[in-house]
């Protein structure tokens, strides 16, 4: 359903289980960055009223998820750690060339966001099915549904604001590139890396 070309190695869950505090911290910042992405789309494209409306709701939802993850951290007797660089996102963002029209820039931002949400959804599914911590298993099962909805929403907007055939080709090319990145990732206690 997500279209990802390379699934996460299930052994990634073993790394996560040994580093629950680290994965929760990384996850919290991922939610915060997702809210920031929604806000940046509002700031960058205020004339796109439908997008602004959806991004406003998304920013609220993502900060709600941040709060839920933060509560899990606090309830386990920990504090939110420092933000880390997201190697996955840094490498992913190198795919599309810089420059171009505002519309092209918008489509690229939307495709990046769709892919990040798709990978998050896939990781949440894996955690919900494989992690031994029952509380986190249920937590990630519930979040998985939201991420799937976000992925499809970003892709829908990319197709709306770009030429569908061109957007679909860019999407497939981005999926291929992401699969090549994933060959070297999945060995750390991070949500994407």
UniProtKB/TrEMBL annotation:
Listed Gene3D superfamilies: 1.20.1260.10
GO molecular-function term, one example from the UniProt record: tRNA 2-(methylsulfanyl)-N(6)-isopentenyladenosine(37) hydroxylase activity
UniProt-listed SUPFAM superfamilies: Ferritin-like
GO biological process: tRNA modification
Cross-referenced CDD domains: MiaE
InterPro entries for the chain: Ferritin-like (IPR012347), Ferritin-like_SF (IPR009078), tRNA-Hydrxlase_MiaE (IPR010386)
Pfam families in alphabetical order: MiaE
Protein's UniProt name: tRNA 2-methylthio-N6-isopentenyl adenosine(37) hydroxylase MiaE
């Amino acid at each position: 359903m997500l279209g990802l070309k390379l699934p996460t190695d299930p052994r990634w869950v073993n790394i996560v289980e040994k580093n629950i505090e680290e994965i929760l911290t990384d996850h919290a910042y991922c939610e915060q960055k997702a809210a920031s992405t929604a806000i940046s789309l509002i700031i960058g494209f205020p004339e796109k009223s439908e997008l602004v409306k959806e991004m406003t709701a998304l920013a609220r939802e993502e900060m709600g998820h941040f709060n839920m993850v933060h509560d899990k951290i606090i309830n386990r007797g920990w504090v939110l750690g420092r933000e880390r660089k997201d190697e996955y996102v840094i490498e992913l963002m190198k795919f599309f060339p810089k420059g171009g029209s505002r519309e092209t820039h918008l489509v690229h931002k939307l495709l990046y966001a769709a892919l990040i949400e798709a990978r998050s959804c896939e990781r949440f599914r894996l955690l919900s099915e494989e992690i031994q911590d029952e509380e986190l298993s249920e937590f990630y099962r519930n979040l998985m549904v939201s991420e799937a909805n976000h992925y499809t929403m970003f892709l829908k907007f990319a197709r709306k604001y770009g030429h569908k055939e061109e957007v679909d080709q860019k999407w497939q090319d981005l999926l291929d590139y992401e699969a090549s990145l994933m060959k070297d990732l999945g060995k750390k206690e991070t949500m994407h890396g």
